[in-house]
Amino acid sequence: MATFSSKIVTIERHTLQQQQFRPGATGALTQLLNDIAASAKIISREVRRAGLGDILGDDGSVNASGDDVKKLDVYADKAIYRMNDHTGRVCVMASEEQEEIIPIPDKFASESAKYVLMFDPLDGSSNIDCNASIGTIFSIHLRQSKGAHGTLEDCLQPGCKQVAAGYVIYGSSTVMVYTTGYGAHGFTLDSTLGEFLLSHENIKIPDAGKIYSINERDTHSWTPNLQRYVAWLKEEDAETRRPRTSRYIGSMISDVHRTLIKGGVFMYPGTVKRPDGKLRLQYEVNPLAFVVEQAGGCAITEDGGRVLDLQPTELHQRTSVFMGSKNDVDECAAFLDGSHPALA
Ligand code: AHG
Ligand code: MN
Ligand code: MN
């Protein structure tokens, strides 16, 4: 029989307790986070059954970013939309799977809906058919517009304006990590209870790690400094914790979750074909950067700027990203800007 070594806290209780840090809070954000947790349970159930029904495989279409759409992508996209289209808390949504912003139906649209919800319904979906971990990523902003419906401008706010963000990883267990700017906290789904229980309170990313994570297919289209950095990581020098270990699942959510727990650096740089890389700023990079910073880590772009300071100009904007342990990201930044002594 399992015993409990510390207090038992459900995600509902935790989000409610965190509300005290936001003076004047009405409870709408708390409820929105709980709605996301509820949609994650629905998606998790479906992911766990993948292979049993007719839910594996391609949907046959291509999404706004040109990726093949999987049936589970569509299912997850709908689950989040249906959970949030009628609550009066969200004024507009945007999804990696949909070209345009997603309006709230007229009958539920209201000027008092305060929040903007953006999401990647299923990240890492090319891994579904081989049973690797996938997840849902979400980002919440305060609306700026007036009127019944939210606007594109509401969705084009920089990541530093996020009021909450997080992800749910459907791994060996289902874990939800969220932040409202007061630390990053993780909850594990007890599927027999149907409850997310606090399992990773106040996550702290190690200051330095042993792992680097990048798709080395693109080595020859990286900048010379980045090529040198990754080659340097493989050299032998115990004092600087080298050689490092390489891990790359190809599902950002899994690679970043591992980075958060074990430390290290996750990288998706620009390439000759894609100067801004592949990952999407609003649905993937900003929310995970917010979580990583709240855990004490860093997230920068290839030119060394802070990810969360980028001003988005389009909905499906891409950005390069280097995120993870502070020391590792600093070290990487020194290679990228050419100041690292090893480049001399
Ligand atoms: P999605 O499944 O939402 O389209 O995202 C896939 C992304 C991300 O999860 C991962 O880090 C990256 O694609 C992998 O890309 P490469 O195959 O180019 O490495
Ligand atoms: Mn994704
Ligand atoms: Mn996706």
What brief labels describe this structure?
single chain; 344 residues; alpha+beta; Fructose-1,6-Bisphosphatase, Chain A, domain 1; D-Maltodextrin-Binding Protein, domain 2; 2 domains; 5-stranded mixed β-sheet; 8 helices; 15 strands; 27% helix; binds 2,5-anhydro-1,6-di-O-phosphono-D-glucitol; binds manganese (II) ion
Detailed description of the structure:
With 344 residues, the chain is an alpha+beta fold. It has 2 domains: 11-200, Fructose-1,6-Bisphosphatase, subunit A, domain 1 (Fructose-1,6-Bisphosphatase, Chain A, domain 1), CATH 3.30.540.10; 211-343, D-Maltodextrin-Binding Protein, domain 2, CATH 3.40.190.80. It is built from 8 helices and 15 strands. A hairpin with a 4-residue loop joins strand 9 (184-190) and strand 10. Helix 1 packs antiparallel against helix 2 (28-48) and helix 2 packs antiparallel against helix 3. It starts with 10 loop residues before the first helix and ends in an 8-residue tail after the last helix. One manganese (II) ion binds next to strand 5.
In a few lines, what is going on in this structure?
With 344 residues, the protein is an alpha+beta fold.
